[in-house]
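Course assignment 3, question 2. Fill in each field.
Student: A.L.
Task: Predict the tertiary structure for the chain below.
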Amino acid sequence: MLLWEKPAISIADLQGNFDLAVVLGGTADANREPKDRLFFHKSGADRITHALNLYHAGKVKKILFTGGNSQVFEDPERDNTPIYDFYVMCGVAPEDIIIESSSRNTHENALFVKDLVANNSKSGKVILITSAFHMRRSEGCFKKVGIDVTGFSTDFYTVLPKNRFAIDGIIPSTYVLGDWSFLIKEWIGYIAYWMAGYI
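Answer field:
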């Protein structure tokens, strides 16, 4: 995972300001009741909150949230109102929030936001926000459809080097098996996307 995850960069190291932060979905449970709040998954909330950091730091003008519906056999149209409401609650101006609700996977994320990016980014400067282990495939998809993005990795699974020999780094953990599951799934996805010509 340490070799695969794209490293984090500090906000201060970002060159200039950006028109858009494109945030990939899959971070919240849209089907959980009641519908009056946002239920984050155990991982991935960084994608939402780091976009807020960038917005309030003046690094991005607008936030474009895309997708999050992985249900293959259901209507791809979904309600991302809780995401919108959360951003408004956190101080993002309503006119600075763009929601794309139809995409079901990373390839469709890139395809379905292409026109939205073109209409909202005159400079072409776009930050892509997703989990560090998912960044390689995501950047590939967006660049394949002609969107030049700066990756902003979040949601890290790797253990920091200084913690590897602490108690938590020595005691065997079932979480490691889960990390392998994420990583193997991502490798398979990367190879499948490469074979399909998506990256």
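Instructor remarks: The chain has one domain: 11-196. Residues 20 and 117 are 8 Å apart (CA to CA).
Grade: pending
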